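BUG: 3D viewer hangs when loading the predicted structure for this chain

Environment: internal workstation, default settings.
Expected: structure renders.
Actual: progress bar stalls at 90%.

Input used:
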Amino acid sequence: MKLFSTAYFPPIQYIAAIAEGMTLSPEKVIPSVIYIDIHEHYKKQSYRNRAVIATADGRMNLNVPVIHDGNIFATPVKDIRIDWSTDWLTRTERAIDAAYHTSAYYDYYRDDLFSVLERKREYLVEMNTDILRFFLEKTGVAADIRYTESYIETADEDYREVIHPKRKDTILRDLGLEKPYFQVFAQKHGFMDNLSIMDLLFNEGPDSIVLLFKLALA
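Structure tokens produced before the viewer hung:
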């Protein structure tokens, strides 16, 4: 079982780990089968409601505010609701515009992405899954997304705590995919790793798949 936590604008290595289970050849595409743990307890300061993008000032966190009813950290993530009482979505869209408006493929994907956000889902998992499906489709990664039916203690490939904004991981290195790609602010800040998949897609467009999956086409 390939097991993930839900993620908001997931980092590149999250998508690469999904792609690793995909079969891609001129004859067929077999999707990667992944499970998202929706019964784990919610945890703060994780990719569950945080993403990292590259801006003119360096790294920037994007966060989704959630409703704190009772003991939120004892609440299954499937029951976590988004707090729409403030206009955080407008601020988020403006931040993304400012960071990526000069990227080569931003105009191509922008409106479709924002339409996903503007569905204003009630639950965090719903919005995150919408976003995940968007980026899988646009990067060309085929995946069968499934939700767990109960909390899973362990899994053969458990990425729930491996992929974390506070910890470095070796996923891209282990997959042979650890290499830089074009970034708008690279001359100012150098190459920034561990960013949201949007950074790769907006800068590399259809070529993103090459950096997410080791193509071995016959």
